[in-house]
Specification:
Strand order of the largest sheet: 7-6-5-8-9-11-10
CATH superfamily: Vaccinia Virus protein VP39
Mean pLDDT: 95
CATH architecture: 3-Layer(aba) Sandwich
Order of helices and strands: EEEEHEHEHHEHEHEHEE
CATH class: Alpha Beta
Strand content: 35-45%
Helix content: 10-25%
CATH topology: Rossmann fold
Distance between the termini: 56 Å
Number of helices: 7
Length: 239
Amino acid sequence: MSALFEELDHQTTPMGEISLRRRRELALDVDVYEAKLDDEFLMSTLFTVAEIALADLGLAQIDGDGLDVVVGGLGLGYTAQAVLRDERVRSLHVIEALPEVIGWHRRGLLPLSAELTADPRCHLHQGDFFALVASGEGFGPEVPERLDAILVDIDHSPSWLLHPSHAAFYEPDGLRRLRSLLAPGGAFGLWSDELPDPSFVAVMDRVFAPVTTHVVPFPNPYSGDESTNSVYLGHLARS
């Protein structure tokens, strides 16, 4: 049996103190990996169902093969792994603001690290996803100019942000800039910790057609019942 608790990394970043820890959850007989920003929990390997659903639901909207995908936010890697499970994917470019998080995977600290870093389709890029979208110049020379899917899991929700500078992305002009990076028939997907917000759906309706939302249930071993996350989806017509 592994040690009951181990801090795998702890570093100071412009966003605050970020840490990665592994602890043994005795009641479930599993190792749990958790990331914190200051005193706030960002992610846990106990709760990955909706992160995986973000990829599965987003890619299900797209026809064809040879798909080029961007994921905004690397985290523990579960959205990226789910993208790579789709054999139609030609390239995956993950945009992560914190080099420390990329370093966790390159150092093999997380359960999915070896799988992600060994897949030649998967490319990890350090950068501010929101600033890159706002620039109107794309995600960099290594990333295709037009993408089949852009999937985002960074903020807690469209109204519960990790940083105030992200707010403009969730307005019509911000989403229009993102839409300009999608190929015809492409899809935008967004993870949220909260139930779908009708006001944000109305914003998406001004940019994408159609727009759908999905409430994703998952078992919560701490509460003993179900919890939920949400996925917003926007699609572009092929013509």
